[in-house]
# Entry
Amino acid sequence: MEMLCANVAPLPSYTYLVPTSLHIFPCRSHHRLKSNSVSLPKSQTHSKNISSLPLLTTSNCNHKQQDNCHTTESTSCSDPRYRHSLFAIDGNSITNQNPKAQNQEKEVEKEDKRHTRIKKPKGLFTNMWWVDLKAALGQRINVEGIVSSVAMLVKEQHLALPHLKVRDIRYIDWAELHRRGFKGVVFDKDNTITVPYTLTLWDPLGSSIEQCKSVFGNDLAVFSNSAGLYEYDHDGSKARALEKAIGIKVVRHRVKKPAGTAEEIEKHFGCKSSELIMVGDRPFTDVVYGNRNGFLTILTEPLSLAEEPFIVRQVRELEVSLTSYWLRRGLKPIRHSLLTDAEQCVKDLPP
# Structure
């Protein structure tokens, strides 16, 4: 039967500061104890207050081993020198061993608080409402369009003149265009096939869209400065809703018309832009973009002006005035290789 030998040595009721990472070397039975068995690194910056902490040393021994425990002088686990040397520490030496430690700790805490304050506003600017607000402003202020239009007004006025002008897409003869060698049709969205800021097809155009699908099959697409534009339709939800409503693929792109290239459109159709038709309602955006990239351009009249912002309506009036003036002055649209006379692709509506 074993007996538990315990030696208890209470310390005086003083307050001792002990570092949290205090290294205590265990008692070894075959080595003489050297000085204090406490290691206090100079870089330690944290401490704890310990009051009246007793030290309890225990050892398991039988009756025969008990005599050895009492007769061993230098290696005994109950040696009072060992017990007292463990916590015989000057409190002032701990707190004052590194004068810069406390200041360093305060600096770390201040740095953490400063980073916390900086991180808080981060979520504010990543919220969807901020992206939606930016997109709404971008819908009304087309910086790329302004820059491109200025260049066009200076030396490329003919780019704003369409190959064909009709009231709406019901007047377009899709079969004749296909017979002339065109392989696909690209539609603008707002005021071309939908009322502005809606995601459904304008009902009177349903029959013309079906005729276009019967001629060109799936080689149709929507290329708009609203649905499908990453700046405005950041998550693609508007593009998906429009695709579901009209059954036509919406091409995603990053640059607003009239700026940018036809790379995304050509990749979608698998052919050159010169074999495609661009249909839109804005001379300075849809027509300029189409002519600059080699499309056959068809200009339609707006479906509804009531939903358009005031600034957009004013810009539209300016566009119409300038294009009419240039036509009266004898300016001609650029020639297209597949169609020299676009008027042959206009049809009359049945009574």
About this structure: DSSP finds 13 helices and twelve strands in the chain.
